[in-house]
């Protein structure tokens, strides 16, 4: 019985093409912000608004990283502190602290979520060559919320996939806040 042959050159080329396509898809404009000394980026297409910190109405029985809700032109928006979401030390809000209102895709469509950050710095225009794949940190470190690492002016910025930073459970809980 003949064993089916696999053209390994074609299979290898397909894997390389898929990786290149992914890098090209990640290229584009990113809003750079920081949490403490760490610098991050979110795709500009996911950002709806940047606003200064304002009064956040706390909601009982929510996770620690969910700060509450704000009223954005008549629409109630849940707010998450990214420092706490990423298990970083809580910091006092300053004049540079802001809320990035993002559009996050979930099972039930998209929803607006505010993300509290220490400050925004710039909009980066990244090419595929500027972006490296996320390193493998071992099985115990979840990297699904990371698009990759950007090399900018000798520094590394962590590129976030905001749709995956907010887990299915987060979105479910935040959606319940609004209903």
The average pLDDT is: 81
Counting helices, strands and paired strands, the structural category is alpha+beta
Main beta-sheet strand count, sense and barrel state: 6 strands, mixed
Categorize the overall geometry.
globular
N-to-C CA distance: 62 Å
Percent strand equals 35-45%
What Rg is obtained from the alpha carbons, in whole angstroms? Answer: 19 Å
| Model regions low in confidence, pLDDT < 50 over at least 5 residues | 1-21
- Describe the oligomeric state of these chains in a short phrase: single chain
Number of strands: 11
Helix/strand order, N-terminal first: HEEEEEHEEEEEEHH
Query: How many domain regions?
Result: 1
| CATH architecture annotation | Beta Barrel
The CATH topology assignment is OB fold (Dihydrolipoamide Acetyltransferase, E2P)
Strand order of the largest sheet: 8-1-2-11-10-9
Name given to the CATH homologous superfamily = CheA-289, Domain 4
Number of helices: 4
Helix content: 10-25%
CATH class: Mainly Beta
Structure notes:
The protein has helices at 8-26, 82-85, 162-165, 168-177, and strands at 28-35, 38-43, 47-52, 66-72, 75-81, 98-106, 109-117, 119-126, 131-132, 146-152, 155-160. The chain is an alpha+beta fold and 179 residues long. It has a single domain, classed as Beta Barrel (OB fold (Dihydrolipoamide Acetyltransferase, E2P)), CATH 2.40.50.180. The strands form two sheets. The protein has a six-stranded mixed β-sheet with strand order 8-1-2-11-10-9. A five-stranded mixed β-sheet has the order 3-6-7-5-4. The chain is globular. The N and C termini lie far apart (62 Å).
């Amino acid at each position: 019985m003949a064993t089916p042959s696999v053209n390994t050159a074609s299979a290898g080329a397909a894997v390389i093409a898929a990786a290149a396509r992914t890098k090209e898809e990640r290229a584009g404009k990113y809003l750079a912000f920081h949490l403490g000394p760490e610098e991050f980026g979110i795709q500009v297409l996911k950002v709806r608004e940047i606003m200064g910190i304002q009064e956040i109405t706390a909601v009982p029985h929510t996770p620690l990283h969910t700060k509450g809700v704000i009223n954005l032109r008549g629409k109630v928006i849940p707010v998450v502190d990214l420092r706490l979401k990423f298990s970083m030390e809580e910091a006092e809000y300053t004049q540079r602290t802001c809320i990035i209102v993002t559009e996050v895709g979930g099972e039930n469509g998209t929803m607006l979520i505010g993300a509290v950050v220490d400050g925004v710095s710039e909009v980066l225009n990244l090419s595929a060559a500027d972006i490296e794949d996320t390193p493998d940190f071992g099985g115990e470190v979840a990297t699904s919320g990371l698009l990759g690492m950007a090399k900018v002016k000798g520094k590394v910025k962590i590129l976030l996939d905001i749709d995956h930073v907010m887990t299915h459970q987060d979105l479910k809980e935040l959606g319940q806040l609004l209903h």
